[in-house]
């Protein structure tokens, strides 16, 4: 009998070492996170808090170390770092003091950043007009654009949509760009805490105002009891808290629900992007070449497409995005990506090359009609945490950074007006941010393309979407008196397995296509052993009782890291049990989005855990 993934993964996945002593200097204060902290008693309420939905929990009553900042930013990606940099630049220009901290759950800045990526440089130029002289890692300009429709054997040329033109853009490793932004932020005096997971939001007593965040407790075992390495989380309190966690952030999802920020908009809809970076043979490399594909391997009812970006140094970034509103529970986005690579058009490029890295991440696709309210008492949402990706462009980095700039401009004015008061002064409302957003290039972009993504929900599937998208982007430019609505949330789009035939995917050839554990081993993923499982089930019976029986266990298919399995239940012969291999998790958030029973809650593991992406 085959061993479960949890056992087979041991040799394939590098686990991270225990996080040792870390010392950060924070604007005249010193914070020491000790690997061995004096053991403290866990009350029953503390254990219950840890076991609950951390995103909705209020601050624990147990005393904690606390630090005060003007602005607390959750997430060290393009949006969060752009906001931090802009705040410090504004303060320096007027000789003011503003304290800013960025909390990042990845082991270092960029470790959890994954994107295509071909980016527009406008917001970067706003922050650093001399970014080229400063050595920003944008080295490969986009030189040519191609669009292909793939059949099972052929690649047919298609007209290239103007929205997807990349003239003036750069093909980059976004993880490297983010690292560079992190360095610049530190030079400006931003306090950056990597390997630090924000696990809770601090609300005011009446629950109406955000006052900061609490970082995750470290050194807790699977039973929620303190180990010898126990280090309690700390409170980071701010006059403003900006959430820049990226797509479907673990705190933002609870915040949006608690403060009812989506009352005036639709639900969000998502895609799952899976990619690899390859080193290809020099004679097959065309620096600056960009190709996007539609069609194979996806059927006409499934939204998605492929991308192939030729970077510098014989590197190629390629991937497949699958809309998570797909209906067939037997569909595996990971296996569809393998089929994409095996297509003759793609395989010819990859033959003789080697894989350098792999990764996967959910991305927002809802557009304008899915935006939540962007500000609230004590804070704001920016970047993909707000849902600012332009789907037809297949880009979001420029909008993420621009939103960071906009929120920083508003926050700076508000904080200066408040003076140097304590963090418990009346809540700041960033209404200026909402107004600036409405008048920004972000809103103009999203309004113009608002009907493109939902147009793929018609009975004509991808063909109807292509026809409407062409008409809308070429002629109408969004100038129509109506806005299409999304059909249903992604988890509700999944249909019972009885309506479909199982999909037989080919076995990997270990040259171009690979098994899922081999791919996960290329992410550098690791999680500290004997910690609480960060993938929480509201009801442990639901997966077997409902998901396996009705949907044939879709968790085994939609996860791109082999986290979920249905294995033989030795205690109940002839039955299955649901197994979570949380050490495989690459933090893509797909399970939290696509689980048809909405029984899986993705929460943060210990800081520094998860993937360690390189060149992604």
Automatic annotation (TrEMBL):
Its EC number is 1.5.5.1. The keyword rRNA-binding does not apply. SUPFAM superfamilies: 4Fe-4S ferredoxins (SSF54862), FAD-linked reductases, C-terminal domain (SSF54373), FAD/NAD(P)-binding domain (SSF51905). Residues 576-605 form the 4Fe-4S ferredoxin-type domain. It catalyses: a ubiquinone + reduced [electron-transfer flavoprotein] = a ubiquinol + oxidized [electron-transfer flavoprotein] + H(+). Gene3D superfamilies: 3.30.70.20, 3.30.9.90, FAD/NAD(P)-binding domain (3.50.50.60). GO terms for cellular component: mitochondrial inner membrane. GO terms for molecular function: 4 iron, 4 sulfur cluster binding; electron-transferring-flavoprotein dehydrogenase activity; metal ion binding. Its cofactor is [4Fe-4S] cluster; FAD. InterPro entries: 4Fe4S_Fe-S-bd, ETF-QO, ETF-QO/FixC_UQ-bd, ETF-QO/FixX_C, FAD/NAD-bd_sf, FAD/NAD-binding_dom. It is an enzyme of class 1 (oxidoreductase). Accepts electrons from ETF and reduces ubiquinone. PANTHER family: ELECTRON TRANSFER FLAVOPROTEIN-UBIQUINONE OXIDOREDUCTASE, ELECTRON TRANSFER FLAVOPROTEIN-UBIQUINONE OXIDOREDUCTASE, MITOCHONDRIAL. This is Electron transfer flavoprotein-ubiquinone oxidoreductase. It comes from Coemansia thaxteri.
